[in-house]
Write a structure and sequence with these properties.
The chain is mainly α. About 75% of the residues lie in helices and about 0% in strands.
Length: about 750
């Protein structure tokens, strides 16, 4: 019974870890709700009236969610600085509330400064957010000069409650967050292996669904790897440990993605294209005929389940003889003589399982320290020796300096000007709609500019906020009617809605807006200002604020979506060329470079591009052809990034791996690919550029062969395959981007 209970708890823990990597959303929700609840409890003991209860709750929420630094010391400093900013903001709000013109001008200046403060990093962003939101709070509760002492006390209490929850009740140290992210990586890796197992067993009518699950699992694993990368510096004791974890995470991610591609090829009538794993909605290749041999299928099914077990139990400390036997068998597939009799495509899958098992072993050693080696087979011992040699060769590197734009070209300055203009329009229009609640339009205008960089992104965000607000108004009407004048029931529901708001915020902006609006409906009830007219006005002000934001973004220092995506596309191509050239250079015998750092820079640039193309790929966009083109280009770039990432990881094995040696011929063979990337980048930057993408013989044929040497000389088939696929994907980028392709040379 105890074993069964532990198994259930382990599965539940893994499921939670996979759904919320690092428990970041859960932590944010608990902190915020706890800070609000503690503030309300103390204020109720002090017999504060409902206006001060609402003010304290809103201030506690702002003090908690505004702070984004990862180190606890930096969070404490920002929270301490935020309190005087909040007190000054609410005091000015109370003083200027009765002075219409002066108050409006100050509000616009405050908005400009708050947005401009983002150039100073997380602390500047937090202080600007606190200043704006607390000023908004003063308008919401109708702050007056006579009520300032009590109101300031409620705000100070809210900040103290936030500090208690952040540092004592729900602490989140960088090391702890990184540990939970690593657990999430393992859980998502196991989920991906499960999806690959379903792909193995899928019938012809189930292939598309199974392939979609593999795509989703691959994307979720990559997302977690990027989250770990972002927190390695703060969460690890020194740089060498950070680089070791980075290396092992990259190895596991590459091995898992490669295993999915090999499995898809084994199920297909022909070798699967890597693009199939990255293009949403792409049909699955036709199932191969004849089907996989029953014996080979049964063995693959057994070994995929064993790999999943190895992943899930890798960090549990349960290293029995049975687990060692499973690990030894899977690692044995790295040797040709241990491969089961099967078609070559199926044997490739077994090789992929062996490499994935090696990656899991490396991940366990990097994350959990030395392991018991008493039950190791020769294959496992050899894998450990390779991993130890790679670990010893890992060294630190220096980050390159980034060029910074100045003046109105700086994104924070441009955004500050745009928000100031949009807010001015929202104030004027909001006053025409309501002299009492005009600030709702300003709030929406402010929010649609947060974390956006182009007119299209602002338009999509405004649409989502309006949609969430409309449905939230309906929910607010229902909840307000049910609650009536029961104050503490309303506050309890407010806490539930706030937790839901923070928990879903990274997943859906529409849902977040829904919960915000429903919560505000309850707050209106508490303040005895609830009515259907007020909630309808909320929709009108939201629509007005979103429209003002879009107008300001389109007319004032505009950044068109095309311009934004082209800039990011150029960055992705530049980094792709840099990673490819550096990896091939190292594989050709050149000097060592920080390849994994460059590969992660490429991944980050691609993530930025993917986010920037959302206005083009949104379901409501009327330009269907443009939508398909954007999705296709991003999928091709993800394919290129996968092959470049794999080349980088392989190149870093050169000093330690006995089966990989430098081959000078690679530099010349890959030169065409690097030139083609540069040609496409030049065309993206200048549509009048006249260079053409080169085509010609395959990469393998460019290498030539020497009599008496093994096939392809001293480099592995895998390197050649990745170079070949990368070359094909780069040429494939030419057509959707309008780059001419030269005829093949004879």
């Amino acid at each position: 019974m105890r074993a069964a209970g532990r198994s259930v708890r382990t599965r539940l823990r893994n499921r939670i870890a996979a759904s919320d990597p690092g428990l970041l959303r859960l932590t944010a929700g608990l902190r915020t709700v706890g800070a609000i609840a503690l503030t309300l409890a103390v204020l109720s003991l002090l017999r504060a009236d409902v206006h001060h209860l609402v003010a304290g709750a809103m201030a506690a929420m702002v003090a908690t969610f505004a702070i984004r630094e990862k180190q606890l010391g930096a969070q404490a400093v920002t929270l301490a600085l935020g309190l005087p900013v909040a007190l000054a903001s609410v005091s000015l709000g109370a003083v200027l509330n009765a002075r219409l013109l002066v108050g409006d001008v100050f509000f616009v200046v405050l908005i400009f400064c708050a947005v401009y403060g983002r150039r100073f990093g997380d602390r500047g962003t937090a202080l600007g957010l606190i200043g704006f939101q607390v000023y908004f709070l003063s308008l919401f509760v109708g702050a007056t000069v006579s009520a300032l002492p009590v109101l300031c006390g409620a705000i100070a209490l809210a900040f103290a409650s936030s500090a208690v929850m952040r540092f004592a009740v729900v602490p989140a140290t960088p090391a702890g967050v990184l540990l939970r992210l690593r657990m999430a990586f393992r859980a998502r890796l196991a989920q991906l292996v499960s999806a690959q197992l379903d792909l193995l067993d899928a019938g012809a009518d189930e292939m598309d669904k199974a392939l979609d699950a593999v795509r989703e699992g691959t994307a979720r694993l990559h997302e977690t790897a990027m989250m770990i990368q972002a927190r390695l510096e703060e969460g690890t004791p020194d740089e060498s440990v950070a680089r070791l974890v980075q290396r092992r995470i990259a190895d596991a991610e590459i091995a898992a993605e490669r295993l999915g591609l090999l499995l898809l090829s084994a199920r297909s009538a022909e070798r699967a294209d890597t693009l199939t794993l990255h293009l949403p909605g792409a049909p699955a290749p036709s199932v191969g005929q004849p089907a996989l041999p029953d014996e080979a299928t049964a063995t693959l099914r057994r070994d995929l389940r064993a790999l999943r077990t190895l992943v899930l139990r890798a960090g549990s400390g349960d290293a029995g003889t049975a687990l060692a036997h499973v690990r030894n068998r899977l690692l044995g597939y790295r040797d040709e003589e241990n491969l089961p009799p099967a078609p070559s495509a199926v044997q490739d899958v077994f090789r992929g399982i062996g490499e994935a098992a090696r990656a899991v072993l490396g991940l366990r050693i990097a994350l959990d320290g030395p392991q018991d080696e008493s039950d190791d087979s020769p294959a496992t011992a050899r894998s450990r020796e390779e991993l130890d040699a790679e670990d010893a060769a890992i060294d630190g590197g220096e980050e390159a300096a980034q060029d910074e734009q100045t003046g109105l070209r700086r994104p924070t300055t441009r955004a500050a000007v745009q928000v100031a203009v949009g807010s001015t329009l929202a104030i004027v229009g909001g006053e025409l709609l309501s002299t009492q609640r005009w600030y709702w339009a300003v709030l929406t205008c402010w929010i649609v500019f947060l974390n956006t960089a182009s007119t299209g992104e602002i338009l999509v965000k405004g649409y989502r906020r309006l949609l969430g607000t409309v449905f939230g108004v309906v929910a607010g009407i229902v909840l307000a009617g049910l609650v009536g004048q029961h104050t503490w029931t309303a506050f309890a529901l407010v806490l539930v809605l706030i937790f839901a708001m923070f928990y879903v915020a990274p997943l859906s902006y529409t849902l977040m807006s829904f919960f915000v609006t429903a919560m505000l409906g309850l707050l209106y009830t508490l303040l005895h200002t609830y009515s259907l007219d007020v909630l309808v006005l909320r929709v009108e002000e939201t629509a007005l604020g979103a429209a003002c934001g879009v107008v300001a973004a389109a007319l004032v220092l505009p950044v068109r979506t095309d311009r934004r995506t082209n800039e990011l596309l150029g960055t992705v191509l530049d980094r792709l060329a840099a990673v490819t050239e550096a990896a091939v250079g190292q594989l050709s015998g050149g000097p060592a470079d920080d390849l994994l750092d460059q590969a992660r820079d490429l991944d980050q640039a691609l993530a930025d591009l993917r986010a920037a193309t959302q206005p083009l790929t949104h379901p409501v966009t009327p330009l269907r052809a443009r939508r398909h083109t954007a999705r296709y280009v991003v999928a091709l770039l993800e394919t290129c990034a996968y092959h470049a990432r794999t080349l980088a990881a392989t190149a870093e094995l050169l000093p330690t791996h006995p089966s990989i040696a430098a081959d000078p011929r690679l530099r010349g063979a890959a030169g065409r690919t690097v030139r083609n990337i540069g040609t496409i980048a030049a065309r993206v930057a200048d549509e009048h550029a006249g260079a053409e993408v080169e085509t010609g013989p395959s990469i393998a044929s460019l290498l030539g062969s020497d009599a008496g040497t093994p096939r392809y000389g001293r480099i592995t088939d895998r390197v050649l395959r990745h170079l070949e696929r990368l070359d094909e994907a780069v040429v494939g980028l030419a057509r959707p981007l309008g780059v001419p392709v030269a005829a093949p040379r004879k």
